[in-house]
Amino acid sequence: MIVLSIFAFVVFVVIYYNVSYYLDLYRNAQKAKALGCKPMHRVANRLPFGLDQINIEKSAFDKHKYPYMLEETWAERAPVTTSEMFALGAWQTRTVDPVNIQAILAGQFADFDLGKFRQQATAPFLGQGIFTQDGAAWKHSREMLRPQFSGAQVRDLTSVEFHVQRLLDVLPRMSSVDDWSKEIDLQPLLFALSLDTSTEFLLGKSADSQLENVQTEKEVVKAKGFATAIDEATKGTSARFMYGPFSPYVFPKGWMSAVNIVHSTIDGIVSEALVKAQNKMLLDDRKPEEKRSRYVFLEELIKDTQDPIELRFQILNILIAGRDTTASSVSWAIFELVRQPQIYQRLRKIILHEFGTYSQCKPERDITFAKMKACSYLQYVINETLRLYPPLLVNTRVANKDTTLPRGGGLDGSGKVFIPKGRPVMYAVWVLHRNEALWGKDAQQFRPERWDGRKMGWDYVPFNGGPRICLGQQFAMTEMSYILIRLLQRFDKMENMDTSPIPLHNLGTTNCSANGVKVKLHEAEK
């Protein structure tokens, strides 16, 4: 009896799956025809529910080769740039076409949301915040955050210099014989630096995670635990994404423990800020001259809400993005520069000419926002880093109504395609940025000179675009520039110590090197 019941259930599931599959095809075909759309390329599945596609993606993720899987997949489909597939019981559209990406992010922005899948995958860690919200809640968060990234805030580099000095204080202590340091991994040090600058910038108080400057053993353990927990929490959150509607039931090993450590730490900061706000009467009206001139995100947020959970999640959303984007991008820049010493030396020569040597430079006078922005080759290096190693390899939007995309239909892909309400649309930034048709035969090469005279378009979206373009873009570019200037002023040579044949990738909130950035350093001035 039990066997028969199980058999009947399996038969029901198979029938339901097939009926749903073909009903969706029929309904969407009728709507597409009415809107003048043409069929798009359809990926054939070898296993039910598209499990073969999911297995390929999970295997690539686990082997730190997800970007290469993306490239291989689209290379096999060429010249197709937009397709649809059935995975985990639902249809999804995927594209690497810049025209479609422009439509999703800008031209038809109102037709697309982040969608419930992102919220479900990130909810335990990031809750409700600017990077998980849609509609009125997102608009409110964006307007509240906008003043933090005003011109005055971006141009104030005093705090960045303070934390860069902490990093530079650590590095000389690693020196050995023959004027070269011992082998070190710069990536975790850069993540600690970025965490400290981000927390001070957003909260008015640094996390002080650069461990050489933490005073007690207890504080060392606490700081290290917080930084490690952020890494594990973001990596686990990213892993949940590939399971789509089933992400709420996926809990990577150790993930919730890491999430709880991060939440506990942030809750402590929030509690302290709420107490200080009460003591300083920040919630009351005060005379203009008594108000702080420097915008601090947490203080402004407390004026809107005193809910500690809401405060926690808003802070986390911004903190994770701020830390990871800068740290991963500077790490990738060094990763490439040490493999191409001629580019390293050219950039260093320009930096010394524009900003002076390390000992001669007075940062408050010589390293200004305007001078960094005007240093073309430095900006080319950063642009090229973000092209080859975008913070997000893929991104997704979900149609909030029946709509269309301008290209991908018909045999030549020039016709518009139908996107039904609720359909996720994934765009692969990694593939877009390395497309030879857009970037030339040397698209895979790190060549900053390609940016000389090139205008940015929808073939380059490291910070997204349209109404949801990253508010912190200018701040991130400024901080990246500053860190690279100070490192190249201090070290006239860096030697690559990584023997891996290809870069491997850890995918958390952003894309960082699974190899680390293993180098030896040579100080320019003794």
Automatic annotation (TrEMBL):
Q: Which UniProt keywords apply?
A: Heme, Iron, Membrane, Metal-binding, Monooxygenase, Oxidoreductase, Transmembrane, Transmembrane helix
Membrane spanning segments where? Answer: 6-23
Query: Which positions bind heme?
Result: 470
Q: Name one GO molecular function term.
A: oxidoreductase activity, acting on paired donors, with incorporation or reduction of molecular oxygen
The record's listing under InterPro entries reads:
Cyt_P450 (IPR001128), Cyt_P450_CS (IPR017972), Cyt_P450_E_CYP52_fungi (IPR047146), Cyt_P450_E_grp-I (IPR002401), Cyt_P450_sf (IPR036396)
Q: Which cofactor does it need?
A: heme
One short Pfam family name for this protein?
p450
Answer whether the UniProt record assigns the keyword rRNA-binding to this protein. Answer: no
Q: Which family does it belong to?
A: Belongs to the cytochrome P450 family.
- Record-given protein name: Cytochrome P450
Taxonomic lineage is:
Eukaryota, Fungi, Dikarya, Ascomycota, Pezizomycotina
